[in-house]
Amino acid sequence: MRFNTKLGYVVEFDKRAEKDLKRLSTGIASSIVEKCAILQENPLQGPHIKCLKLNLYRLEILRVWRVAFLVEAGKVIIILVGHRKDFYRRLTQRL
Fold it and tell me: What is the pLDDT of residue 73?
């Protein structure tokens, strides 16, 4: 899955993140995809964006859902979508 605009970042889901989305209910998955679209404008700053490591960021969605993404040369690559209860454990496994 890929979002693209003329003046912003390209947002891509890697294959594992797409599998994460498919496991969720349709309503939650559509909310997550909608919120990830805002990363096209400025993925580095926002009220629910936190820097975890160099080029690795986290976006909080609906208080309990988290999205981990990398920012590289005009691209935002979403690497993990998950619930907060196991998000950080899964993130360390995925990196």
Answer: 86
